[in-house]
Amino acid sequence: MEFETVIGLEIHVQLLTQSKMFCGCSTRFGAPPNTQTCPVCLGLPGSLPVINRRAVELGLRAALVLNCTVHPTSQFHRKNYYYPDLPKNYQISQYQYLEHPPLGTDGYLDVEVDGVRRRVGIRRVHLEEDTGKLVHPEDGTVSWVDYNRSGVPLMEIVTYPDLRSPQEAKAFLLKLRQVLQYAEVSTGRMEEGTLRCDANVSLRRPGEPLGTRTEVKNMNSLRSVERALSYEVARQREVLERGGAVVQETRHWDERRGVTFASRSKEEAEDYRYFPEPDLVPVEVTPEWLEEIRRTLPELPDARRDRLMAQYGLSRYDAELLVQTRATADFFEAAVAAHPSPKAIANWMLGDLTAYLNEHNLEIEQLRTTPSQLAELVRLVEDGTISGRIAKDVLVEMLQTGEGARSIVDRRGLVQIADEKALRETVDAVIRDHPEPVKDVQAGKEKAIAFLVGQVMRRTQGRANPALVQRLLRERLGLPTGS
Amino acid sequence: MRITPEVVERVARLSRLELTAEEIATFTAQLSSILEYFARLDRLPTEGVEPTSHALRITNVFRDDQVTPSLPVEDVVAMAPQAHEGFVVVPRVLEAEE
Amino acid sequence: MKELVGRPYHELRPRLGKDFSVGELVEAYLQTLEALEPHVRAYLTVTAEEARQQARALDRRLAAGESLPPLAGMPVALKDNLCTRGVRTTCGSRILESFVPPYDATAVRRLREAGAVVLGKTNLDEFAMGSSTENSGFFPTRNPWDLDYVPGGSSGGSAAAVAAGEALAALGSDTGGSIRQPASLCGVVGLKPTYGRVSRYGLVAFASSLDQIGPLALDVHDCALVLQVISGHDPHDSTSVDLPVPDFAAALEGGVRGVRVGLPTEFFGEGLQPEVRQAVLDAVRVLEGLGARVEEVHLPTLEYALPTYYLIACAEASSNLARYDGVAYGYRSPRARDLYTLYSRTRAEGFGPEVKRRIMLGTFALSAGYYEGFYKKAQQVRTLVRRDFDRCFQEVDVLAAPTSPVAGFRLGERTADPLQMYLADVYTIPVNLAGLPGISVPCGFAGGLPVGLQLVGRPFDEATLLRVAHAYQQATDWHRRRCPLRRG
Question: Do residue B61 and residue A280 have CB atoms under 8 angstroms apart?
Fold first, then answer.
């Protein structure tokens, strides 16, 4: 039976503000419990919320980069339900169906998976406050509440059910993170909790209306998302192929066991009794304000990739990698500005530099090495001052210490030996000392020349210009030098 | 009238109020008569009238994104009926469990 | 020093530090409080020691030749739904019986900064829900004019304290009449400012779009002094307006010549006690005699105001009171077995019947399937009520009406039927729905109980209200009468 997978995502991202959505408490992560609270985010009697302007700005930035229609007036609503991590037992959020629409609606984000491009519709974008955090200690009779997170600004992004596979869902989340990061709206990292995601999953036969969907929760990493959705799709397929019906329910992903399971059924669907928040006044987004925000938006990843390809002649593959993060792309362009060798700089960045960052679990922003320092290294290789081989070592030292390339090269005396006269002596010595390989070379075994080159390099601590060494050896041995 | 004891029970659940059987009966009667009196609102035509969702006609009241001092954790703990090492303690909240 | 008690602050202030010290003034009030409290029971918490300390500090500053802030030494009482840092704030409810806020309400902070001396926290209907203070979770307060009668509500404690000489002035809150109605029943002045004039930060919310804090005092002049101090924009309250605060005391003089006073016909219909009607009409005639022009106006939506108010207020209250759940502060039921019963038993045991009734009414009005017919409908009618008032104010400058349909009722008289109790606020409620300023001033007696004249003004035009009320008080002496309890 041919089934089409249909997935929609409901995502919460934490906005990059210093203070909370409705009060001045810090949003800093990792503080001891209940040390970042106040009457407002604790919901004490008599407290009142006041909107953080920056949170609204970030919400508008996000709405714009997600190509949404931004509504001129939006307001906040109360979503009423009882839970211990919700101090007021209502959450201040934005609801879609009362008199005013939320911040942004009907946008899209383009995603590519295995060469297939998908335009994923964004149903809505809105602002709300986060809840506190519950901790469930081992002993099992109590739970603990930490309100530090209560009131942190969140943006909820809901997609249309446009995703067609778990892989697409993962790609979407990566793309979303990238775009939000570019716009400095959020770091969008599931592992850090700055992006949380629930999914709605259903199957249908192509051409038929949407099937019954389940909601999948508790996916805590991109990998979980892919695994959980794959499991759920397979599970639903199996049910349908058996002739059964999918039950509309919420299913939790169990990372350890690798399954989704139906969570305890609630007695009845929650009635949130939404109504406009009387303690806040509406937000009016004037065309001037929106234009101002639009002007401060950076060049977005896709546009930047295309420009890098056009401007610097990079391959799509390389350009895509360089625009992974805004910081990487900025680094690249700054380096090229210092020394116009885009391809070489790209190679160094995507090769040795990336390897170093991965090995040490660093972000490019954390490096002491500057783009102009990298540019300098590339220039030194290109003008023959050092060999490529030496440059690799120099780069490692640069990254470790933040010292400049030229400075390291001079200090360690690594300038390439390109003096023919000096090299001839070493070449002759090597030929003298290794008669067997010499005989091999002269007998036609070209490969043996590599050994001799290596010997010259060894005797010169790697500083000899390898191409020159090749040429000199060949001359001495009477071979054509054109290879 | 539209208020039955079942409605009262549902509303009491939504409001997290445990009611005795007697209270359910009393509230059913009282809420019924109150809502009956309130039904007079239906007599007034309100087609196309904007609801007053906000008492004032102002917009865009904001605060700057500045961090201001939080309460000392001792204050939070002092108010809590039960606390442990800075956390507020409640009966076990059952997460999704099979 | 007992002769100090019962004199308005504006008369005492010039003599402060000369004829008597702050300490003597405060002590006089504390003594009266101590003597009369067993009868009146206006207070839930008395902060005598703190008051004496504050008084001493003020006297030291006086002695040092410092000029003192506007309300220095004024002994005030605060309704117990105003958060006071370090001082128990119960809202008249067992669910907050031991709650001590870590912060001051903005209005309280401003009063303190102005030098007022807080004597304690006064009794109220639980969470400000009521019109007689009989819904207090602790005990009822009695009317100092006749101890068998209610002081009104929900700011009954504040009104009774001022009337009995247990405080020189007080702060109350008014959502549907809770300052004006008890002021009327206790023969003192009570003012509800325009919605947004005074910050609500620290006022424990009942109905967010209707609540306002306001002063109760012996006369209009004192009322203006207190209003001055507490008014003004507060960045902590998004619904407080950023408008300049006029000099209310300066606005008092000016008289009423040429002021157009409107009498809304619908406020003088059925249900109004004849003696109350007479006293109010006599008061209006005084204004006329002073040069005001009186004309009839109409507020046809008056008959819809009460249900509109209750639907909106209860809906907002059902949400505002959801936070009282035994989790992070307040009472927690010892019978809590799990999360659900933590909530349901804490709230069942902590709340009184009127609060439960209103929570359920409000929850119902907001619930799925009923929102359009109840809550949204009420908000639409509210718009129509507002328009009625706007139309009136195109013809007149102030409205005059009774504050309460009756001069008073006995304890226990209306507790059996909630609707009967709701009707006590029929003349005050529309003013809250429209967000307008309103004041009640004593204008006579009926059966030995005080009667109040209510004046209603344009938005943010407290100045005109105060001017008209002050002119009335210059020409009459109802506000100088003191309750028999004091004379004994």
Answer: yes
Q: Does A14 touch chain B (CB under 8 A)?
A: no
Query: Across the interface, do B71 and A147 touch by the CB < 8 Å criterion?
Result: no
Q: Are C107 and C214 spatial neighbours (Cβ–Cβ below 8 Å)?
A: no
At residue A464, the pLDDT reads 83
Inter-chain touch B73–A84, beta carbons under 8 Å: no
Residue A267 has pLDDT above 50, yes or no: no
Residue B1: predicted pLDDT: 47
Stated pTM of the model: 0.92
Please report, for residues C398, C405, C408, the alpha-carbon distance to residue C272 in angstroms, rounded to integers and kept in the order given.
21, 5, 12
B3: left (phi over 0), alpha (psi -120 to 50) or beta: beta
Summarised one tens digit per residue, pLDDT across range A314-346 is 999 999 999 999 999 999 999 999 999 999 999
- Read off the pLDDT of residues C388-402 as tens digits, 9 standing for 90 and up: 999 999 999 999 999
**Per-domain boundaries in chain C:** 2-299+387-487
Q: Which residue is catalytic, options C79, C121, C155, C240?
A: C79
Residue A350, chain B, CB below 8 Å: the answer is: no
A179 and A99 belong to one structural domain: yes
Q: Does residue A354 sit within a domain? A: yes
Rounded CA gap, A416 and A466, in Å? Answer: 9
Instruction: Give residue A265's pLDDT.
Output: 56
Q: Is residue A44 part of a domain?
A: yes
Q: Which overall architecture, per CATH, does domain C2-299+387-487 show?
A: Alpha-Beta Complex (3.90)
Taking 50 as the threshold, does the pLDDT of residue B97 lie above it? no
Residue A78: is its pLDDT beyond 50?
Answer: yes
For residue A118, list its beta bridge partners.
Answer: A111
Report the pLDDT value the prediction gives residue A268, as an integer from 0 to 100: 53
Q: A31 lies in which domain range? A: 8-201+274-290
A436 and A358 both lie in a single domain: no
CA distance B22 to chain A (A): 24
**Residue A124: half-sphere exposure toward Cβ, Cα within 13 Å:** 15
Name the residue with higher pLDDT: A99 or C262: C262
Span of A442-446, B77-81, C231-235, C402-406 with lowest mean pLDDT: A442-446
Whether residue C347 has pLDDT greater than 70: yes
- What is the per-residue pLDDT for A9? 98
Which domain CATH number covers A425?
1.10.10.410
Q: Read off the pLDDT of each residue in A215-233 and give the average, rounded to a whole number.
A: 95
Tell me if residue C318 is catalytic.
no
- Sign of the CA dihedral with A22 first, then A26, A27, and A31 last: negative
Q: Do A87 and A125 fall into the same domain? A: yes
Q: Are residues A315 and A446 in the same domain?
A: no
Helix C22-40 vs helix C156-164: crossing angle, to nearest 10 = 120
Residues A165 and A102 in one domain: yes
Is C376 an annotated catalytic residue? Answer: no
Sign of the C-alpha dihedral, residues A173, A174, A177, A178?
negative
